[in-house]
Write a structure and sequence with these properties.
alpha+beta; globular; 13 strands; five-stranded mixed β-sheet
Amino acid sequence: MTKARLGEESPAPERLLTQHLSPVREVMDAEMLDFNQLLQRDLDDHRVATGLIPYLLQNRATGPAFFPPIMAVLLPFRDGSPSHFPNLGGAEEVDDNDLTWEQVQAGDAFAVRRVVDQDGKYHPVNLAQLRWNEHASRLVVLDGQHRAMALLAIDRTMSHKWRGSKGEKFRDFYEKQVQRHLSEKGVSSQLDLSNVEVPVTVCWFPDRVGEAGHAHEAARTLFVDVNKEAKEPSESRIILLSDAELINVLTRSMLSELRGADNSDLLPLYAVEYDNPEINTTRPARWSVLTNIHLLKEAANRCVFGHPKYLTDVTKKISGREKEPERDAFMRKQLEVAELFPAEIQDEGFTYRRDAMGNTYFPVGQSKVLSDRFSETWGRAILTLLSKVAPYAAHSRALRRMQEGWNGVEIFASLARDALFGGVGVYWTLKDSYDHYTEKAREAHGALKRKPDGDVLRAWEVIEEKQGEFEVFRSDEYLGSTGDEKRDASKASYAVLNTHACQLGMVMTMASLWEMRKAEGGNWTLDELPAFAEALTRGWNAFFLHEAGRGKAKDRRLAFGKGVTNPINLISKLETARAVYFRYFWLQALATPDSWQHVAKFFNGREAFDRMVSDARRMYRSFCVEERIKALRTGRPGQTEEQRRKAAVELATKELRKALVTWFFVTDAEFEAWISSESSARPLELPVAIDEDVETDEEDGPEESDSHPESYEDLLNDEDE
């Protein structure tokens, strides 16, 4: 327990400590980090500049400012990368400053000493010293990094040490704020900065030394523990940090795969949103990304933990609580745990039973064995789909074009570039700052009614300008055109394609077909899963790119959109649970002749596949009927429920037939044969309504045609084309 202090330059330990408190972003290069090496949530520079610094510096009638202790941890680094400490040497007594100390030293990394009395026992006055070599060790702020950044910002501004520091690019957030507060009337004369002291808890791990010490893992665990009762980190940050659940470990392995050196065939890491400080589970929040960490986690969850009923039965809706023992048992099969471990596993003093291993019960020290198996199979397969299926490949190519063509070396251009491609939380900080100053300008009067000039605000304006440039690139990459009409069509399509519902539906299609393949028997192996994903990719690309751009032929790259003629997608609220209906769309696309040939070799004919498509289609038709019934309760209040149901069945059936004929090469005769077989086999089953409110199409984009009927009666009565 010690303190960090502000004030004039001084060799005093408390003064030096302020300068050595390091945010993680100034110690490690975020672009080179494995995701298992992340230690904390991202810094919110806007919050520090507009909240904590004024709190610390301004005089108040209520008394002095008080910061709870900052927690800093001594961690090993070599050349800016996480490393391990040397082993500790034996204890020895050292005389210094008229005191006797017991000292232990870890090579050239650090030394710790405590005062002892004349009997060699620790002195009742608990006094200790920690010394470290910054080439081998760094004191990293683990908890309270916003408080620490407030101290650093004041110190660097006062001592003119921003230039040349690793935090220089963030200077514009702080320098003017600090100078303004220091120059305000009364502050410079009444506030003695040498009296500004903040308590600091300095931690080190005496048992986490040597090559097997894993000090960084201990620090991550400590961070999660100390934040359990405080303001919880965002869901994204918990996934990145927590080892308490295996699903988080598996999710991080996919991010680390994208950060690897040899990943040119996969989507770039900056196409994944993993630093969102808020919970956003249905789609990414940033325009530049195509997916986010929540989708990756849900994809791993459904593929590896199931519940298996959602993969083997395509008529099941995702709802209700799933039994953990059944999910854990499925995971052990999906990763073939029996081939990875003996019946009992010893790990860090505990014994684990292989046949009980699950999401919350697994040997953390052996988690890499599990994550490697996942990465080589399911992880690679999931990333293959998100990287190579035509619309997602086009999105990634557009992002790379924008990054490679980025111009500007100014601070504001660098901040904007980091916000889009760095993944260190800069995007959200810039957004908060821009919104803050825009609101202040809106509330001001006269000459003050304008946003202040500065790199932070210019950086956000660059980001907003780049959105239009990116949409042009993406339209060019996906539709081969940058015209206004095509650009609007592209944007509308991606409003659907980049949702969790669509992407998870694609991944669950792969998982369901893999279960079907396993059920057929034969000599399949889990190692073939990435090749299976590649085959699915080729099949879907054959669908999307069929006759693309040829005259008046339907452009199937727009097939999943909602503003097209005769859309297959009639889902108004694109929630994650609606992935089961998108699975039908992906199955139907794979059923087209050019697509099926790419995956045919993995199956014993088409019989089981066609049955799965039929079951999924029946489920989706039932969903559409229920949606129409809810709408008709408002549109036709005078009708009986049976009358509305009859009209809804007729309407939904007609809509589905038109969509299949228009987009999926299904003939009228084939559809009528399917309807006949369905009618004779079973009555139409309607799903239980989730709510009774009429849903509106919030996600609709521009229409490809204006030929949509004006009412349900129009659609029921219009002539077939």
